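Continuing the batch. This is chain 6 of the set; chains 1 through 5 are on the previous pages. Same settings as before, nothing changed between runs. Recording input and output for traceability.
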Amino acid sequence: MPIPTLGEKRPAATTLEIDGHAIILVRLKHHWRAYLNQCPHRGIPLDWTPGQVLDQSGQLLLCAMHGALFHPENGHCLAGPCQGKALVAIDIEVTQNRLWLSLPSPERSA
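Output for chain 6:
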């Protein structure tokens, strides 16, 4: 997929769906991270408003359901009911101004 424009804010995050997988795409200063858009607490998407997954500070990923906060660099839960767990990371590579995601197998994303 071509690299999307996410604005000037750092980090920047959005959500999208690819082949039935709900994805969180995060741009950090000079690299990208991707996670399944699935809170480890209840298995629901983090965003209630499509594409809105950052907290008010714009620094952490936020689960809108229970307020769990996740570090955008590694997906680890920093606060909330899933503390000690992490978002499921998706391998991501940037080649020729395109992002390549290695989507998880169905049993890993369930």
